[in-house]
Design goal:
Elements lengths: L8 H32 L11 H12 L1 H4 L3 H27 L9 H30 L16 H12 L8 H29 L8 H36 L9 H17 L3 H25 L8
Helix pairs in contact: 1-2, 1-4, 1-10, 4-5, 5-6, 5-7, 7-8, 8-9, 8-10
Length: 308
Amino acid sequence: MEKMSGNSGYKEYVAGLMAGIAIVITGHPFDTVKVKLQKHNTEARGIKYKNGLHCAARILKTEGVKGLYRGATSSFIGMAFESSLVFGIYSQTKILLQGGPDGGKPQPQAIVPSAAFGGAIISFILCPSELVKCRMQVQGADSVLPSSSRYGGPLECALKTVKCEGITGIFRGGFTTLLRESFGNAVFFSTYEYVRYHLHLQRKGASSESSQLIDIGVGIMSGGLGGIACWSAVLPLDVAKTIIQTTPEKNHTRNPFRVLKSIYARSGLRGCYMGLGPTIVRAFPANAAAIVTWELSAKLLGIKRDFN
């Protein structure tokens, strides 16, 4: 397994920031489709999309490529800080719990709490940025929102939210975000670590010339599969979060389990997993890009990772 130099500290956070940028560039269009499906296809009335492809085609027809990147500004800011913190906190906490750098098989007793802790911390940053992102995403050309409720940009959205709902309004869905990020990151990093460990066992004996190419391949597989495992586990919580953050009613319940119970009664299990298609399609490339970018950035920054 990898060994990291003791002075890697802040560099892990810089590498994580680069990973976040890679996630947004790769995955935001899929995320826009997912949010629209979750918002509109779980409502009792309003527009319905047949599937993710139909939703994407409609966005492109009515708004162009720009529509797929609606809300990307807040997403770039939120994801950059989120990834910087989650990768940095995860790496440093795992070393602390293990009593030193990795030296062999992944240790779940260090991986799971480190990932969950990182997820809990970043949820406080991610919640407001995702609230703005989601509200921007659902107000496209197909939205039934009145013009008075539309936002000209992310900053206007944030300011209007605070003005109308108070400072707590910008943190609407915070508990659900915390649950999603804690559990989701535990699943993601556990899958990532185990897949990477076993793939690197298979690569022993490979020539040095092909080593870097193999590292990229391992990063793609471990990151991609980690992303699929994560989102398969937490998508219902994400559906609940989207509903909580985008509903116009101020007194709407913020309990994710009540929201999911209501969705289940109306749309069944399919409703609780609304947006699964674009989420899974997005999960592999976006998280593969994140891991490859993280590991390459770490290497460029001089963080030593040598495998036994």
